[in-house]
Amino acid sequence: MMAPWPKPALVSFWLLSLCSITLAGVHHISYLQLISPQAASGLPKRLKVMRVNDLVLSVYDSNTRRRVPRNGYSPGNQESQQFWNARRAGCLAWDFWVETEYQGLVREMNASSPKAEPYYMQVLKTCELDDATGAVRAVTRYSLNGEDMLQHQTDQNRWFSVHPAAWRVAERWNREGETSAVLNHLPLQQCRFWMERSVPFTTQKTAQPSVHVAFVPETQDRQRRLICHVTGFYPRDIEVTWERGGQVALGEQLTSGIRPNGDPTFQIQVSIELGQEGVSPAEHIRAQNYPKAEFRLQVITREDRENMS
Description:
The structure is a single chain. By secondary structure, the chain is of the alpha+beta class. The chain folds into 2 domains: 26-203, MHC class I-like antigen recognition-like (Murine Class I Major Histocompatibility Complex, H2-DB, Chain A, domain 1), CATH 3.30.500; 208-308, Immunoglobulins (Immunoglobulin-like, Sandwich), CATH 2.60.40. It is 23% helix and 34% strand. It is built from 5 helices and 17 strands. The protein has helices at residues 80-112, 167-176, 181-184, 188-203, 302-308, and strands at residues 14-15, 26-35, 46-52, 55-61, 66-69, 121-130, 136-144, 147-153, 158-161, 210-216, 225-233, 238-244, 247-248, 253-255, 259-260, 266-273, 295-301. The strands form 3 sheets. The protein has an 8-stranded antiparallel sheet. Strands 10, 11, 14, 15 and 16 form a 5-stranded antiparallel sheet that branches. A hairpin with a 2-residue loop joins β3 (46-52) and β4. The protein is globular, with a radius of gyration of 24 Å. The protein starts with 13 loop residues before the first strand and ends with a helix.
């Protein structure tokens, strides 16, 4: 979380909100898989987390050997239990396979450059679907202790060894082809399968942002400035900009970037310096009641942007 806020000034702002039909967009699926050399207290040896459009929908761990839904996700039909049983069976097959491959990759790494520290393997499988074109793209990356080892791209349908020590593994996986494809990377058919069953759920999960503006007095190092804190929004995509004289104040504003909150929502902080003019903070905010003032704040969520299209 961010640092405590300065005492907010009494200011006005525009929060742009339109209502219309939601149009097509780009949807994302990611599988984050973590494999540890041994289980730690309270932590599993193998963990698998699925996110769709930045929302965690399921988690599997090797301690419970179960894949369970998160954030209220359910396929929503009478076969829900059979659905999760089938997903659990797939995770159990992955659990056995990935432990074997993890040990093999560690052996290759130690043969190339022996190290005393234990190795942790990270696997990131990502998939992207463009509603407008129907195009699907998937990329899978394997890393040891944060260092990339292997990569697979569906447009080339081939494994590449990013690290010299992983070339034997890449060659073997390329020879095996579809035999282990469902285990070592994210095939397009599996990507489409999960898109069909999860994207409608995530599009119903929306949270409108809460906007707070604060005035920060001048210090020895910095001019006084206005800070906008936007929080509690989902989906992740949002635009927060300061405008001066009807134009976006490019080069003048600083942003924290979009950061996750402790729940499924996100936050962002954007600030702009006011300069040395002897006017009050409220006079720097342009809103409907202050058309002659200098600054205007604009917040546009993904839903707003699609509704304006």
